[in-house]
Amino acid sequence: MSEELPPPVAALFPARGLRERLDDRLTRELALAGERIAGGSVMPTLDMAGFRRELAGFDFESPRPIEPLLEWTIAQLEHGVTHMTHPRYFGLFNPAANFPAQCADRIAGAFNPQLASSGSSPAPVEIEAHVIRAFARRAGLPADASGHFTTSGSEANYTALVCALTRAEPRFGEDGVRAFAAPLAMYTSCECHPAWFKIAHQAGVGRAALRLIATDGHGRMDARSLAERVAQDRKQGLVPVLIAATAGTTGGGMVDPLAACAQIARQHGLWCHVDAAWGGAALCSDRLRGLLAGIELADSLTIDAHKWLATTMGCGMFITRHPALLSEAFRVRADFMPSTAHSLDPYLNSVQWSRRFMGLRLFLALAAAGWQGYAAHVERAVEVIEHVKARLLAHGWTAANDSPLAVLCAVPPPGNPGVGEIVRRVRASGRAWAACATFEGREVVRVCATHGETSLADVDELVAALTAAA
Amino acid sequence: MSEELPPPVAALFPARGLRERLDDRLTRELALAGERIAGGSVMPTLDMAGFRRELAGFDFESPRPIEPLLEWTIAQLEHGVTHMTHPRYFGLFNPAANFPAQCADRIAGAFNPQLASSGSSPAPVEIEAHVIRAFARRAGLPADASGHFTTSGSEANYTALVCALTRAEPRFGEDGVRAFAAPLAMYTSCECHPAWFKIAHQAGVGRAALRLIATDGHGRMDARSLAERVAQDRKQGLVPVLIAATAGTTGGGMVDPLAACAQIARQHGLWCHVDAAWGGAALCSDRLRGLLAGIELADSLTIDAHKWLATTMGCGMFITRHPALLSEAFRVRADFMPSTAHSLDPYLNSVQWSRRFMGLRLFLALAAAGWQGYAAHVERAVEVIEHVKARLLAHGWTAANDSPLAVLCAVPPPGNPGVGEIVRRVRASGRAWAACATFEGREVVRVCATHGETSLADVDELVAALTAAA
């Protein structure tokens, strides 16, 4: 052991002056990149072979100076991703991140608090709980509803299944799935998010337990088919545990009949979960929240802040009216942890342990915009899609879905080269990004408004690209 | 539908000039806060009752101006968390985040790419895969080893269990835990991370399946006891599936006998996982990596970048020599997704779906520091603890553990007021942060070097606080 410590590693912990200079550069370079992106192609334009060769050169044997490294990284991202931040990204539910959320990330990274326990991070844990309660109230759940932030809707939906299993069989926690007398069954619609297959596998329930209930011809789970299937499974000796309704399906933005699903769940003693990963944002709008009527009857909810609430990735929420069950499902004793406040500590109430201060993103954005600001953001996206729809109908296209939210499943006029080819051509043009999807068995072009700054000129450009391609 | 779109919501998407001004302020305010933190108390000093009252005032009914909101947030964090960024936080494995990682977070937030698929984000997915392979090689795994970034060690350890189950029983994915002929068993030591209990519960295996093998008197899993227990469980008709050895235990920083664990796993056909969430960072150092000998025999590894590699929270890694198994465990078909490159796409190879570009943090930090920079960072922490130990021994303390890594389990001299009280007094002084822990049945003061800039003066201050309290 030497009498002196070596100096801190400057590449990891540079002096304050250098940090300030680099942060100032990042501020400006990222803004410039954003402007170039908005004026350029939505698609990646990177020469991947060249990129792979360059990347292979990073053997980490010698340190590299940070300034050119940051420049290189920004350039690779500018050319090497599909641009969610482009105003003509009419794509999956991935947002251009709002500014307060980006500020929140900077603050969270600088303090880097450990959000596992309220003992370590009393203020952040309270802030997260406050936001969760605000959304629970907005959804009409009871005052003692609680929950936590998750990385994504997948984690939140998985949490719902763990809760359902833990409630359904008191010995599940100790003895696992074998504690159930018979194979399990869980229900969602054939328009559900496919992550449910992974979730059934991961949870030890098995993929075969997942029943995809038929839709009603409009992309919504058919409540009668659901009731019949649950009754039939019961009769055959299976153990139904969970109904997962979707509020804002991935394909068509449809809302399952939430009240009917809750009623069937209650009748059979099942857990009723609503996957409102995307559609949950409509709760912010007094004009649109009625579309989610029945959500207040759910045992639990998923809402992703990194979808329509436009925070940075990944920032999901799990909300439940059964806080005690969360404590049961994720309980643990850890003498080394600073506190064991079962009602509060995220490590005792959720899948994760070490965790980032994710909830600050939504807190700052919601505080800055208020419910009314988020309402305007959500309603504006619906209007964008209404404009897209009106223009496409005028060009002879039809709408396969009838979502009151911001997703259009568009069917090109007869004589078109096929949906896959249309989408390929639009993307190849770089003018806009839209998706292929299947809605009620039909191939459709899926257009979703995801960017808070998309203009009517952007809508026109999308429609021009689509009609040119069809 | 109006003929015009309403303007974008300015609170969420402010004009560029305002963003620039606020980002510049954040740069300076966060640096100043960091300096005040280093000179002040390690402990939260917030009046929680007052804070809760203020927080309750956030009803989100009216928007609030962003500038005072950011100031308020920084002030609450400055006073409302245990400061991981304080050079005298000798605490749990939570780091002061390095600067390149913070830059990476800013870049990832600005572009906000969706890391679920290589179709969306070809360059980022390649960068993450490159870093994973670099660590796999450094650990001595085969060239085709692969893996992914996770939110934390918990997710990575859980992924190991899902892989173990999927390999052990071909029908597990479809039929779940019931596909196994008998109850399952999984093995780790009584010094393991308690998240394993949650993991056993979540995976449908059941908490009762977790066997905590005795340690050898030095905090390391006893290989003979492990072998006996596996054989005994086998004999009794159970199905052993996983051995999880720890490389760097939470309590004492000890390394289980990795080669012996791998041999027992191979002999019985079990999955051998090494939870190197913290200790894995020693792989960067040619001087220390030998301490992890045997890690190259593992079926899978957990390494957390947000622990000793000092990225921002949460940034874990799961690495395995069985890439095909990852594809089997997390396979799914999703027509709407941009690609289905099974070997590459994170949504087909991991628990998560929507995901942040987390791996950029480690890529930039490793590129800037190189292996040698990270080696210096890790070796420096070991030296810090050697200095703490030497000073405490000189004051009549003893060491309960003998970790070659950067954790000391210190036992105060006779006549002390008890470990709990000593730690309470040190924390109350605000001079430093240390933990209570139990090591081999003894109550100890646990001191871990987590900050890359801790000085000998900081060590002296910690030791003064500890000896004053004892």
Order of adjacent strands in the largest pleated sheet of chain A: 1-7-6-5-4-2-3
Main interface by residue count:
A-B, 181 and 180 residues
Helix count from the secondary structure assignment of chain A: 14
Report helical residue fraction of chain A: 40-55%
Give the mean pLDDT of chain A: 96
How many structural domains are formed by the residues of chain A? Answer: 2
CATH topology of the largest domain in chain A: Aspartate Aminotransferase, domain 2
Subunit organisation of the chains: homodimer
Secondary-structure-derived class of chain A: alpha/beta
H/E element string of chain A? HHHHHEHHEHEHEHEEEHHEEHEEH
Largest sheet of chain A: 7 strands, mixed
Cα end-to-end separation of chain A: 73 Å
Computed over alpha carbons, the radius of gyration of chain A is 24 Å
The top-level CATH class of the largest domain in chain A is Alpha Beta
Shape of chain A: globular
Describe the fold and architecture.
The structure is a homodimer of 470-residue chains. With 470 residues, chain A is an alpha/beta fold. Chain A folds into two domains: 17-84; 104-365, Type I PLP-dependent aspartate aminotransferase-like (Major domain) (Aspartate Aminotransferase, domain 2, 3-Layer(aba) Sandwich). Chain A is 42% helix and 12% strand. In chain A, the strands form two sheets. In chain A, strands 1-7-6-5-4-2-3 form a seven-stranded mixed β-sheet, sandwiched between helices. In chain A, strand 8 and strand 9 (407-411) form a beta hairpin. In chain A, helix 1 (16-39) packs parallel to helix 3 and helix 5 (122-138) packs parallel to helix 12. The first copy, chain A, starts with 15 loop residues before the first helix and ends with a helix. The model of chain A has no long low-confidence stretch (mean pLDDT 96). At the A-B interface, helix 1, helix 2, helix 3, helix 4 and helix 5 of A face helix 1, helix 2, helix 3, helix 4 and helix 5 of B.
